[in-house]
Amino acid sequence: MKIAVIGAGTIGLSWTKLFADHGHDVRVSDPRADLADVLREFDPARVRAAADLADAVRDADVVQENGPENLEFKKDLFATLVEQAPRHALLLSSSSAIPAGAFAPADGERVLIGHPFNPPHVLPLVEVVPSERTSEDSVRRAVEFYRSLGRTPVVEHKEVPGFVGNRLQAALQREAVSLVQQGVVSPAELDAVVVNSLGPRWATVGPFLGAHLGGGPGGYRHLTSHIGSSMSNLSVGKPDTSPEATERVVEAVEQAYGDKSYEELAEARDRTQLAILSVTGEEK
Ligand SMILES: NC(=O)c1ccc[n+]([C@@H]2O[C@H](COP(=O)([O-])OP(=O)(O)OC[C@H]3O[C@@H](n4cnc5c(N)ncnc54)[C@H](O)[C@@H]3O)[C@@H](O)[C@H]2O)c1
């Protein structure tokens, strides 16, 4: 297939790797001045920098958009894509939180969300979220496309900002920041709590199956009646999001991890996450 990648930042480059590794021709469009340099790590027979947006999408079968998380940008871009991409091309957005219904044009039956978790060349989930204007055929083709790449698409039934994965992530992150701000733990200590408990648990069972097992032979029913109320009555923290308070958390995170380069940390993350997925059977 011919795939246009629009936006070659963290997510666009990771999608590019996945698409190229599956033998597709990838054209990448991004105004960044160092685009040719960052694409040098890929096989030039498969991946090339497009001269502009029109060049990237001219004969694309699929467009995967990964530009700025900005409503006006996505509105303008998708209006152009509907006009310039071939009529059969699927128009997918990686948006983390903005539903397609907020930016798809009136004739946007091919526009929908294909939201990955970072990095999409490692983590299998893709949230497929149609708007009310998206056709059933586009949803079916998006699911087939992501499955053909060894991903695990999950089609969601309603559009909500942040979809499912990021709403869960945001809830946990709010509490994590609040616990650090209250001085309960440092960022590295909080990470150690998660990596040694919720992380491996959730790599194998989700929150509901985990809770069903947490109730012992009595299952989720027993858990909700037994410790359910003491858990649901816990008041969760409200982090201080002022610039000064945020700066203090950023500095604490940089102090914990700033002695290692991005490349070093990302390589260790990819290697260990792929090892986990190879055991849980999710690696494809
Ligand atoms: N980082 C994540 O963890 C993550 C995960 C899933 C989804 N997303 C979503 O993916 C999208 C990209 O996020 P990111 O983290 O890769 O951001 P990023 O800042 O790393 O990259 C964005 C890229 O878009 C480029 N860009 C700016 N204007 C453009 C234009 N007119 N045409 C083409 N490219 C343009 C920038 O030069 C930059 O390279 C966002 O919508 C984000 O919500 C991010």
UniProtKB/TrEMBL annotation:
The record marks H115 as: Important for catalytic activity. GO terms for biological process: fatty acid metabolic process. Pathway: Lipid metabolism; butanoate metabolism. The keyword Zinc does not apply. Residues 2-37, 45-158 form the 3-hydroxyacyl-CoA dehydrogenase NAD binding domain. GO terms for molecular function: NAD+ binding; oxidoreductase activity, acting on the CH-OH group of donors, NAD or NADP as acceptor. Pfam families: 3HCDH, 3HCDH_N. Residues 162-230 form the 3-hydroxyacyl-CoA dehydrogenase C-terminal domain. InterPro entries: 3-OHacyl-CoA_DH, 3-OHacyl-CoA_DH_NAD-bd, 3HC_DH_C, 6-PGluconate_DH-like_C_sf, 6PGD_dom2, NAD(P)-bd_dom_sf. Keywords: Oxidoreductase. Belongs to the 3-hydroxyacyl-CoA dehydrogenase family. This is Hydroxylacyl-CoA dehydrogenase. The lineage of its organism: Bacteria, Bacillati, Actinomycetota, Actinomycetes, Pseudonocardiales.
